[in-house]
Amino acid sequence: MENIVNSKAPLDPRRMGRMIDRLCTRYGSLSRFSIGRSLFGREIEALRFGRGEKEVLYVGAHHGMEWITSLVLLKFCEDLAKYHAAGRTLKNCDLAYLYDTKSILVVPMLNPDGVELQLNGPAEDLILRERLLRMNGDSADFSHWQANGRGVDLNHNYDALWREGKEHIARADGILGGGPTKYSGEFPESEPETRALCDFIRMRDIQLLLCLHSQGEEIYYEFGDDTPKKSRALAEVFARLTGYRAMRTEGSASFSGCKDWFIREFGRPGFTIEVGRGENPLPVKDMNAIYRKLLELLLIAPVL
């Protein structure tokens, strides 16, 4: 049977929706739901594998150029469901046990508007088109666009040293308003995408969070004194499995990110996983190699 998820082309929101349709039609172990809508009204899609009490959450594509993380997560969902349906193990992982005892929740593309802008630019009939063009330096080339549809960098829009981060970025980068990257927004969770994710997490009992970004093959696990005691040990396990480096955050990456908020809010392990190497956006042909390196990490995280 032909794989549904492939690396033939970059993944925009419409193509992702079609893939999710096919995955959920083919595999009963995958359930589909929405955690909310983006600024432009797109569904923020999510998938669930498992019916266990322990929940872990994997999030991709906070940033427009990082759609390759969405492909990786969809490929993971497909392999979970495919091997489970066949009664086979995946990397020696008993998927029947995993399905019965854990729940893996996946938000493959938190920022569908940003991905759409990065890949296809603003539509001619988009109400905010002229504003977006101005924020993009009056250029129609959005190939380096990371932010959402309002020019807010979603991974700087969380309530974890948000004000300090905004001031640091203003000093270091001169960023004071909306644009392609690093603008923190008017207040924490000002954006519908971050608010939807935070509200979803607040309603659940998520034990561990993985946020996939690109690039650098690095694992970030700390948030100052709030860092859970076992986070470093887990990061070192993940590093051994992937060949990535467990790192401490520095500069603007030290503020207002999703894993920072999760650690501070819940006192549980959260990780930023920077996948692949090169220059964003990473080429789609890198997806399979990235996935192979990450697979054991994605499988073992729910059972640690």
Automatic annotation (TrEMBL):
Domain annotation Peptidase M14: ranges: 7-299
Assigned keywords, A-Z: Hydrolase, Metal-binding, Metalloprotease, Protease, Zinc
Entries under Pfam families matching the protein: Peptidase_M14
Domain of life per record: Bacteria
Active-site residues from the entry: 274 (proton donor/acceptor)
Keyword tRNA-binding: no
The UniProt record lists the keyword Cell membrane: no
InterPro entries for the chain: CARBOXYPEPT_ZN_1, ENP1_M14_CPD, Peptidase_M14
Gene Ontology molecular function terms on file: metallocarboxypeptidase activity; zinc ion binding
GO BP annotation list: proteolysis
Signal peptide (UniProt feature, chain positions): none
Gene Ontology CC terms, in alphabetical order: extracellular space
Gene3D superfamilies according to UniProt: Zn peptidases
Co-factor requirement: Zn(2+)
Family listed: Belongs to the peptidase M14 family.
Protein name: Peptidase M14 domain-containing protein
Organism for this UniProt entry: Feifania hominis
Source taxonomy: Bacteria, Bacillati, Bacillota, Clostridia, Eubacteriales
